[in-house]
Amino acid sequence: MFCSTQELAEKLKAVRYSVVDELLPVIYVAMKLGRPLLIEGPPGSGKTALAHAVAKAAGAPLERLQCYAGINEERAIGKFDEPLQRLFLEAADDAGAVSWEDLRCQLHALTFFTQGPLLRSLLHERPCVLLIDEIDKVDHAFEAVLLEILSEWQISIPKLGTIKAKTIPFVVLTSNEERRIGDPLRRRSFYVRFEHPTVSREQEILELHSGQGFGAHSQVARLARALRGWSLEKPPSIAEILDVVRAVDVMGITEISPEHRDMLLPLLAKTESDRQRILMRDGFAALLADCEGAPRHVEVY
Questions:
Q1: H-helix or E-strand spanning residue 79
Q2: Separation of alpha carbons 59 and 35, rounded Å
Q3: 81 near 39, Cβ under 8 Å?
Q4: Which residue intervals of 42-139 are DSSP H helices?
Q5: pLDDT tens profile 265-298
Q6: Does 70 share its domain with 209?
Q7: In terms of domains, do 37 and 146 share one?
Q8: What is the pLDDT of residues 39-55, one digit of tens each?
C-alpha cells in the first residue's frame, strides 16, 4: 500500500489523521509482513479512525465487521442464498436434462453465497483494509473463527470448501477492553496501545481538521483534557471535541466563557449524570478554570 514510512506519514496527514511518529514503523511493518494490528484503548481515542484513515490514504477498499455480543459466522463470513438457490433449481427443473451432481456443484458455489466482510476482504483483487471493530464484545469461540483467517489467510466453509485469499488485507482489530482478548489472537497480532491524546497532540489534530487560523484550538484541547480528568461516565472522544471546535467556529466564538455552557452542553455531555455534573453550580466555570491550569505543551506519550 505504501513504499515507505515517510509516504505513509505524508498520506495520513493528507487525509487529516495525526499519528505519533513511533507508530508509523509499526503500521508499515505490519502491512509488509501481513500481520494484524490489535489496538486497545478507551473509546474515542482514534482506534477505528486509524483503519479508515489508512484505507483513505491508500485509496483502498475498507471492509468493516462491527462486533457485538452474539455475532455469528453467517454475519461475519456469509451464507448461502437459499431463495436464489430455489429459483435456480426451479429453472433447472424446467430446462430438464441436468444431472444432480452438476446441480449440486453449481448450487454450492460462490455465485449463490452472500459474502460477509471477512470473506469479501480475502477476495479483493488488490489489498483492502479489514476493520474488526470492538472485538472485545465477542466470545472466545468467535475469536477461534478468526484464527484461521489471520493465520492462513483462508476460510473453510461447509459445502463451499476452502477459500484462499487473492490478496492479504491490512487488518485492524480494535478493543475497548470490556473483555480480555485471548492469547492465540494476541500472539498473531502486533499490539498497540492508544490513549486519549495529550493537549499538544489534540491541538494538532484540531488544527488538521479545522485549519490553522482558528484561535480557540488551544483552549478546546485543554477543555478536552479537563473533561476527561473529571471521570465522566462518557468522556468526550476526539470526534466529539472536533464537533465542539466546529460549533464555536460557526458561532464566531474565539474564547469559550461560562455563558457558553448551555450551547455546548449537548456536545459535551452524553448522559444525564454527566449533564447534571456540568450543570452543577460553577461546574462549567470550574472546567474552564481547569483549562487555564492545564499545561499548554505536554510531551507526546
A1: strand 78-80
A2: 20
A3: no
A4: 47-58, 73-76, 82-95, 100-107, 117-123
A5: 999 999 999 999 888 856 788 778 877 654 443 3
A6: no
A7: yes
A8: 999 999 999 999 999 99
